[in-house]
Structure formats: structure tokens, C-alpha cells
Amino acid sequence: xxxxxxxxxxxxxxxxxxxxxxxxxxxxxxWSWWFEIRSQVAALAVSAPTLDAGMLAVMGLGARMLAxxxxxxxxxxxxxxxxxxxxxxxxxxxxxxxxxxxxxGYSLRRAAEGAPDAARWMIAALAGxxxxxxxxxxxxxxxxxxxxxxxxxxxxxxxxxxxQARGVGRPLAGPLFLTASAWLVTRLIxxxxxxxxxxxxxxx
Length: 204
Prior knowledge:
The chain is mainly α. 72% of the residues lie in helices and 0% in strands.
């Protein structure tokens, strides 16, 4: 009876890939994020040529890995405080895999530059309204925080909540509310931080 009770409380979250697929997934994600961060740093190097794009990309990749581990840990600790166990490493693997939606979003937003208006609006629906902002202009704080809110980000939020629901053996509604709230809080912090860096106050 104890084993049955434990099975109910820990749910049935599986790995996103099985066997040899997991190392390949992590290798692809590491390379893709390194390449994406390096591309972003290289774009900034036009105005700051002393930047070492390769080294900063390695540092950025380390920060991305730490963020992924921390995100999974925060959700795991939250559910543990509620008396249920979320399998950390399986959930962390889902969080890492779902970060591929961010990679697609970055690529789409770059593709939107110089694209016809119809294509830019389609990309904005997928990758968020940030695709409509020219990269050469200063990005407003609101766009820095919420500019990625599109179909891809919504899919990531829903799938992250789904993985939690599977892991803890609960309906989707609770994990979805938790995940959407956490995403909104982090985006608002990004918005306010961007405004503060420009000398603006987020509080009227």
C-alpha cells in the first residue's frame, strides 16, 4: 500500500528521450546555445570591438546551464513544500529540452529584420511582438520583458506545466497557474530592470 501511495504522489513523468538520445540532446542544446549567445555577442561587438565573443559565449552558456538547473530546482522545492515529489533530473531534462523554443524564437526574430510586413506579423505571432522592433533601436523595457510572448513561449509555459503535472500526479490547472505566474514575475523583473538601467522608474 505504501508503494502504491508513493506511485500516486510522484506521478509518471518520463524522460523526453530515452537511452542515447539524452546525451545527444544535451550536446545539441549546448552547441546551439553557445552558437546563439556568440551570435548575439558578435552583434554587440560592432560597437564594442574589444569583446571576446567566444569567451563570453562560454560564460553565457554556463549561466544558461545554471539557470536551467535553478529553474528545475525551484519548482521541485515548491512541490516538495506541498508534500509531493517532482523527479528533479527528469523535470530538469524537460526544462532544458523546452529551451529549444527560445532558440527558435531568437532565430525567427532575426529573420524578421528586413522581411515583408506580412511575414513579420506572422513571426511576431510565433516569437512575440519583439520581432516587430528593429534591433538597431533601443528596446523599450516592456518589450525587453514581454517581447517574447508568442505561440512559442506559450507552448513552453504549457509544456513546463504539463511536465510538472505528470511528475506530481496532479491536474494541469494548478501547475499551469504556477508556471504562468512564475514566468510573468520574471518578465516583469526584466522589464523593470531594463527601465532602471536607463534611469527610469517602473513606479509612477
